[in-house]
Design a protein that fits this description.
The structure is a homodimer of 123-residue chains. In chain A, helix 1 packs across helix 2 and helix 2 crosses helix 3. In chain A, 31% of the residues lie in helices and 24% in strands. A three-stranded mixed β-sheet of chain A has the order 4-3-5. The first copy, chain A, has a two-stranded antiparallel ribbon with strand order 1-2. The first copy, chain A, is an alpha+beta fold and 123 residues long. The radius of gyration of chain A is 17 Å and the shape is globular. Chains A and B meet through strand 5 of A and strand 5 of B. The first copy, chain A, binds a DNA duplex (30 and 30 nucleotides) through helix 1 and helix 3.
DNA sequence: ATCATATTGATAAATCATTATCACAATGTC
DNA sequence: GACATTGTGATAATGATTTATCAATATGAT
């Protein structure tokens, strides 16, 4: 991640503009609108580099290959549209799940995923 | 799933006895205590059959291959021990996540996964 | 107990996401 | 602008999980 290339800039731009967790394939499709020659290998390479340098983080959802979003966001969870498949960032969090813990267990973190229809798919 | 075999009974027994979501490998290891000759193919075949007949359900956790648990349990979520890797069933649920939904979105279901140390790993 | 056939176990093959390879192109330093 | 070097794109290779294959075995109806 030393040189500034059209491809890398396009990928960063796409992640900023769409502002939701994107799969490598989604990144490729969107980035090709800016750099039509882009290949999937470049997407994987760049996403890996962004994660290593700390400017992106992987978003793992049940039964799905990792998506990626820009780092630095505050604690949040995700919504997965069951129709279009897009994942969106959610605000808010119930916060305390200790009442669900069996005796003797200790929790470090949690994940919440809501499933349903996004506003676009409900139109 | 027509005949009753030692292998299938062993797999059902293991799932009942351990009473937590099990990966195919975990099922194999436990079932071999009952039927030492058991092969991994039989585990996959049997789990698939159990799911098809509705007596087991897949449990998908972020970044993990599916585990399987017996069907018929009431709404619940899961705890994933970050040390031993075992997954446990949790009781209770905050229930309402509508306050997290963006305007125009509708939710159908949700998943919660807690991560931390199980009681065995804290001893 | 016999027999038709479903099941098993070992392993080859298929899948799918991701990474490695490598010739060619682009970057940016001098 | 020349050049050393990094980056790209096409695609082969990899790794992990799951499924297919098939000869041998076990089941259960007769």
């Amino acid at each position: 991640m030393e040189r500034s290339t059209r491809q890398r800039q396009a990928i960063r731009d796409v992640m900023t503009e769409l502002d939701r967790p994107l799969s490598p394939t989604e990144v490729l499709e969107a980035a090709r609108h800016k750099v039509p020659s882009m290949g999937i290998a470049t997407v994987y390479r760049t996403l890996k580099g962004l994660v290593e340098e700390g400017s992106a983080v992987p978003v793992e959802l049940p039964g799905e290959a990792p998506r990626y979003e820009l780092a630095g966001k505050k604690h949040h969870h995700h919504f997965h549209c069951t129709l279009c498949g897009k994942v969106f960032e959610l605000e808010g969090c119930p916060g305390d799940f200790s009442f669900m813990l069996p005796r003797g267990f200790k929790t470090e973190k949690h994940e919440i995923v809501l499933y349903g229809r996004c506003s676009e798919c409900l139109k």
